[in-house]
Amino acid sequence: MTQPTERSLVDQTLALDPHLATWGAYQDRAQALLDAPLSAETVPEWVQAWSDLSADMGEARTSLSVYADLHTGDDDARTRLMTFLETVMPQAERLNQALKEKLLAVPDFTPAPDFAQAYRRFRDEADLFREANVELGVTHEAQMNRYGVITGNQKVHLNGEDLTVPQATQHLERPDRDARERAWRALADSKQGVAADLDALMLELLRTRRQLARNADLSDYRAYAWRELDRVDYTPQDCLDFHDAIRTEAVPLAATIVRDIAAALNLDTVRPWDYHRGALLDPHRREPLQPFSGGADLEDKAQRTFDALDAELGEQFRTLRTGYMDLESREGKMSHAYCAFFPRRAVPFVLMNVVGTANDVNVLMHETGHAFHGFASGQSQRLVWNTWSPIEFVEIPSMGMEFLTLDHMSHIYTPEERARVLTQQLQGLIVFLPWAAQMDAFQHWLYTEAPEDVSVADLDAKWLELDRAFHPWVDWDGLNMDHMRAKGWQYYHIFRAPFYYLEYAMCYLGALALWRGALDDAPAALARYKAALRLGNSVGVPDLYRAAGLEFRFDRAYLRGLMDFATAKLSDTTARH
After folding, report:
1. Element (H, E) at 319
2. Alpha carbon of 293 to those of 391, 433, 457: distances in Å?
3. End-to-end CA distance of the chain
4. Separation between Cα atoms, residue 409 and residue 488, nearest integer Å
């Protein structure tokens, strides 16, 4: 079911009318919006027409982008996407700026409550706009897309086979230490094969991002990103303080978890192949769980899970199964996992690379949580700008679903296996926090402190410095592999989503608090969860957290309280199983 057919859903969408990938498909409607007389009374109808036009352009972009990620070796697919980005998107950006200026000039207009947030964002975005950044933005998009081209066809030669990165990575979970080391070294060799290309790409991106900031009369790219990402509820210093809180509260706890596992396995030290944050080793030397066989089996088992959790969510997952998922890992497909969105249809699309592991189950729960967010906000909000939510909340629907589904997987796991999964999930959350802080700290340095003539060697050196601070439990001594360790910054988000990472840590705290509430009253917690999803992007971040029954906090005291809760649940789970 998940294997793409010769003419996949995305193919069919584009084949309906290739004209939709050109500016000519939207030009007349755009001009009508520009020409229409506008008053406070006519704004709502005019804004809805603008939203509909934006949704149609977003629909075409999603189709082109997803198809290119499913077929990274298809030059025509990449060309179609780049043609759209180079011809339609600059025109759309200029159009949106003109429409924002037209709207903001309407006298005596007071936005309705469900439009107030978008109206405020329009004002801020209009102030940030610079014509010089329109074409530079096309260059930036093309550069970011090259990351997928470089890594999409990456192969790992292991045990006489050529594997995809996800297929090779699952070997890092094996109890046989020699097998893990072989897999880790094979992955290191594969990564080294693309490292030089990614080095060069990063330097290009850095120059482009700095120029974007200069064009906007801002001191650095962090200042630009802060405004572009609409971060109005916290400051860069708050993030730096969060890094310190994680270093103080989470790093020692993570180190204890990893070292206790190593001690149980009689490992004298934790080598890089003994630590994989996505799936920590099993202290009892059990083989990795293999809870499903193939994408279709995973779909069936996930369907039963969501049906048991909630009838409405179960129906939404059935919709995904009608052609809005591609789960199998294969050559020529982007190796990441994500959830995209078709805004006109208000239907998401889930892309994954499953290989049969428990982590795959968890990732599907995660990405489907995003999909539920898309369904809920897309069906509840009349304006395209009010779908999804700010990025400080957007991972709570996904991370929360990882926890909310745990009690509905008896058809996937035995009670002992479920306890094992819960243990790994809680441990994984704790060890993830240092990684998130390290990723964010690297970017704060890169975009505010790195010298103008920063070199690849400087990037590597900074990453090594941060890695020693946030991951002190990994022993690299005597391996002569610092050149590989230093490339940890060559990660998807650094290239494709700058400054989008610490939000994962914020949202993990929110998801943990959501689960804590669900343990007391599961129906009420789920009802709050769904209500918050329906709000989409129509309210601010603190209001979204409140709707979900949560606090928007990431200070040291709050972090310590949640770490104490997670530790207590780990102890309880271990004692009972």
Report:
1. helix 311-320
2. 33, 31, 43
3. 36
4. 34
Return the residue matching tokens 């046989």: 176
DSSP, collapsed to helix, strand or coil, labels residue 349 as strand
Q: What single-letter amino acid sits at 73? A: G
Cβ contacts of residue 104 below 8 Å, gap of 6+? 122, 123, 126
pLDDT, tens only, 348-381: 999 999 989 998 999 999 999 999 999 999 999 9
Sequence letter at residue 309 = L
Whether 448 and 220 have beta carbons less than 8 Å apart is answered as yes
Query: Please, are residues 209 and 140 in contact by the beta-carbon 8 Å criterion?
Result: yes
Q: What is the DSSP letter of 280?
A: P
Helix residue ranges per DSSP H, 129-271: 132-152, 165-169, 177-215, 221-228, 236-249, 251-264
Tell me the pLDDT tens digit for each residue of 491-510. 999 999 999 999 999 999 99
pTM: 0.90
Is the Cβ–Cβ distance between 176 and 104 less than 8 Å? no
Length of the chain: 577
| Closest C-alpha to 210, from 201, 228, 222 | 222
Cβ burial, residue 172 (10 Å; 0-12/13-18/19+) = buried
In the numeric block, which tokens belong to residue 500? 């989008």
